[in-house]
Specification:
Largest sheet: none
Number of strands: 0
Helix content: over 70%
Shape: globular
Order of helices and strands: HHH
Strand content: under 5%
Radius of gyration: 15 Å
Distance between the termini: 44 Å
Structural class: mainly alpha
Number of helices: 3
Length: 82
């Protein structure tokens, strides 16, 4: 059984891999806002199809968005305040 630290690292790696793929899609398309929206629209039912509940999905997105505000320190996009 994996430890909490091992699980956290696996989660971080999965998120990083996903973000890299989203960035690649963004770089290949001019309508960058639509790309992220489409990925998220497709992601939610994919999670549900893999037995995550609607409540789990909603809570995860809400917590992620709340954490982003602190992480981004009021920047809309990384590097905007430079």
């Amino acid at each position: 059984m994996a430890t909490e630290d091992e699980i956290r690292m696996l989660c971080l790696n999965a998120a990083s891999d996903f973000a890299v793929r989203c960035k690649e899609l963004k770089d290949q398309n001019s309508d960058t806002q639509r790309i992220l929206e489409e990925v998220m629209i497709d992601l939610v039912p994919e999670l549900w199809d893999r037995f995550f509940s609607q409540s789990e999905i909603k809570t995860a997105f809400e917590r992620a968005l709340a954490g982003l505000a602190l992480y981004a320190a009021d920047e809309e996009r990384r590097g905007d305040k430079r």
